[in-house]
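MODEL INPUT / OUTPUT PAIR
PAIR INDEX: 1
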Amino acid sequence: MDLFDDLPEPTQTSGPVSAAVTAQPQSTKEEEEEEVEKRLKRKREDAECDKKEGEEEVKKVCKEGLPVLKGYVAARRGERDEMQDAHVVLPDMSSYLSTLPGQVSNVSYFAVFDGHGGARASRFAAEHLHHNLAKKFPSGETENVDKLIKKCLLDTFRQTDEDFLKKASSQKPAWKDGTTATCVLVVDDMIYVANLGDSRAVLCRMEATSGADGQRRSVTLALSKEHNPTIYEERMRIQRAGGTVRDGRVLGVLEVSRSIGDGQYKRCGVISTPDVRRCQLTANDRFIILACDGLFKVFSADEAVKFVLNVLQEGSVEPKPGLTDKEVRFEAACQQLASEAVRRGCADNVTVILLSIGF
């Protein structure tokens, strides 16, 4: 018996059979549409993957052209009984940040705090200000990062001041310490300098001379603005708040008109709002000097820059294990600058952070 020829005839010839015959082309059409949809989905996923890889590649290329800053620190107590200065050096702050803004690759932070009336305010600011900054730092895909960073710095200083004043007022007797603050925040190739009081930050930039010999000269750029009661705008604010300026000091006592802490002077117009300045780094920039007023009592900004350049250009240096020739020179320049300030008769604490800039 032939297996195929002798199949029995179906008992029902119309309903089910006709339904099966008409459904078959519809099923094939749906399968084809589903296959087309799958292919389109795969193409979209591949395109998104390629785009992401491309963006990562662009970010990687951009990152390679960014400046690298390295910090060197020198601190001298001078003739004071106590070291009231504090400092922070964070060449890579990314570990403190939850996520960086999409277009940012690197963040660095350097700061000097010059305490007065004790060391508690300067130490508190050194311990907490960068943590507050990390909490408020913009993250994710954001527009106008520059504006957000400036607001972040203003909010950070206000928060740090409020936190310290709260702690200081809870003590018995209440703490009366205060501190200046000069912070350099480096975001890729852009630096933001937030300053309170009379510590300073200056940049050394090399420029070509007009001669045909190809020589370059140094230019000193001020990155911060000092705040003392003798400045007209500062004095007017203090007087409007009911305070007075005598012998160049708030109420004849406090030398600065803006600070963290100094709770007893806040009602007299002393504020914690920093002056924030921005500067884009270039391949012509050599270094930044970040220092308390102890240095600038015996050095002008230009003298300090030229002193560092002279040390960097000295003929031979003694090699040190683990340091390159450039690092040895910068370390020596930083230490010699602080020591020279003491030798010139500065009786105050002296703290210097020297930041080398390399591309």
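PAIR INDEX: 2
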Amino acid sequence: MSVSVYNLLVLFFALGAQGLLRIPLKRTQLPDSIDFQTYVNNVKTYNNGPRYLKDYGYVQYLGEIGLGSPVQKFKVLFDTATPALWVPSEKFIISQSSSFENLTDCKVSRPYTAGHFDALNKKDVLEIGGASVKSQAFELVTAGFEGKTFDGIFGLAYPSPSPVCGPEVIPVQNIKDQGIAPAVFSFRYNIDYVNPAPLQVGEVIFGIDKEYVDESGLNYIPLSKKANWQIALDRVNTFNGLAVCREGCQAIIDSASPVIAGPVEEVNQLYQHITGGCSYHNGTYEINCQNLKFLPGLVFTINGKDYDLDAEDYVLKFPTRFGTTCISSLVGIDLPEKTWILGDAFMKRFYTVFDQEKDRVGFGELKDDYRH
């Protein structure tokens, strides 16, 4: 058997019968309610809130990739709001990889969370979901990664319109160009915050898994801005009638943000209609867990279709020594053009598809067996 045929067989069995590239997502650390409250308060007061939204390590879902030959493994955050693959220089040992390529000594400084990353452009073999991607460009971070709860960032956004160091070879496009998977990927979550075990809580899938969702039930929305998966939002309202974003607004679908964020004034209006023992504390709304079934749901109308979230969907549950604390994931933060951010708290309710080939985002109901 030739090497090329052998490699094709290995890839076939790694991808499975549907030809899907799968990366399991795991939460390795339990959330803490006090830490979450501090995080949200920082988001609301920090002068660059959109980036700070990602810097909360207790409600993040990480997947494993590898770089180099032999492979060096990293637990990375899959981020739809950045295009590049980043790993810190202290964790990737250049001398241990025989396939390493010194792409360029061009230095890159990128804003991320509450600061900047300084990095150098490099290339090596990427191992992801059982497949090998040759000559994958990545940014070797030399400063700014200190204190992060993950080993790297796997960017899933479109290429930067004005790259500093020449054309970007982003992972999504490179995977497609090498015939491994389409430039279409999806997220499926299965999350139980109160379960203390570090179990798998979902997957990033290159392609669409028909086991989880009926493709005919996927509703696609064209992008209004490619760079950060931005779409038009028709309105937001509660089940009991209050509506905000009445004349339409914009929303970013962000896999690396744990919350749902909207303009402060509009979020405050929504909370006036969310009853059931809400108490404001340190930037967040704490809710009596016994009253969740009485709280109104939220409805996000997108491209003419309603996407409903029950209180069980938008309220995060944190285990404590005395039981469970319930805190709303809906936070107020003023972004340009009154833009909303629909993060994991929204995405976990639906099967979410990001399609770079047709410049669109799709949402579909998970099949009954896979709803959390």
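PAIR 2 NOTE: The radius of gyration is 21 Å.
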